[in-house]
Design goal:
Blueprint lengths: L1 H32 L3 H19 L5 H8 L3 H7 L3 H12 L7 H6 L6 H16 L2 H12 L3 H26 L11 H24 L8 H28 L1
Helix pairs in contact: 2-3, 2-5, 2-8, 7-11, 8-9, 9-10, 10-11
Length: 243
């Protein structure tokens, strides 16, 4: 008799637990269904960023819907196509982290170029040293997606070419208005940028140890670069002028 009572009590507890779980899921479902449209869209974009960062752009939106516990059609109520969703991920992951004030920092001649570049790369690494950012950037490049090319153009226009002009001014060389920026000058600055970005590649793609404190690494990279450019930049200008 005691065993029977215990068994009945156990079944009742199991039934109550199952009932509580069902009620919890039902409540969660109701909340999900009644989310404001803007909030639902934000959730989809953030989930898509994490999803594509792990699976690449081959990941299917049907699988994304499963990870979010929503219907596949719910995604397409907010985004007419997978490409439209990827475009929003680009805006969320890349454009939202680029600070338009950085261009103003680069051209602010009230402080030495070294200080400007060090400050820029400190702020830049704080924004982009993120697994989602780096992995999506790499996946995008491998697939030939336009988001990578657009972002590279943004960096070139807002940072690289401005920094080339500022270095010339600091070294007393011909201004860009008189002598176009040479390919060698641009490539030298891309080398600096690549040096900093490669730390993120090592951390989030290769998953190997990197310096925990980046400030000193950034300072060393910028100072070493500018020391070399004090010799290289005049040579580049002479070669460009000779053309």
């Amino acid at each position: 008799m005691e065993i029977t009572n215990r068994s009945q009590m156990s079944r009742r507890r199991d039934n109550e637990t199952a009932k509580n779980k069902a009620e919890t899921h039902e409540l969660a479902d109701r909340k999900r269904r009644h989310l404001p449209a803007a909030e639902r869209e934000r959730q989809i974009v953030e989930a898509a960023a994490s999803f594509f960062a792990e699976r690449g752009f081959e990941g299917q939106t049907r699988e994304l819907a499963k990870t979010m516990a929503i219907t596949h059609s719910a995604i397409f109520r907010y985004f007419p196509s997978k490409e439209a969703l990827i475009e929003r991920v680009y805006e969320h992951v890349f454009l939202s982290r680029w600070d338009p004030r950085w261009k103003g920092l680069i051209v602010d001649r009230s402080q030495p170029l070294e200080a400007r570049l060090i400050r820029f790369y400190r702020e830049y690494t704080e924004r982009i040293f993120d697994s989602e950012w780096v992995r999506i950037f790499i996946f995008s490049g491998l697939k030939g997606h336009s988001m990578t090319r657009r972002y590279v153009k943004l960096v070139r226009d807002q940072l690289i070419r401005s920094a080339c002009a500022e270095l010339r001014a600091e070294l007393g060389l011909a201004p860009v208005s008189e002598l176009p920026i040479s390919t060698r000058e641009e490539e030298a600055f891309w080398g600096l940028h690549g040096t900093v970005f490669y730390i993120a590649i090592r951390k989030f793609i290769y998953r190997v140890p990197v310096p925990g404190e980046l400030d000193k690494t950034i300072e060393d990279s910028v100072r070493g670069f500018l020391t070399g450019m004090a010799t290289l930049a005049p040579e580049c200008c002479r070669t460009e002028a000779a053309k």
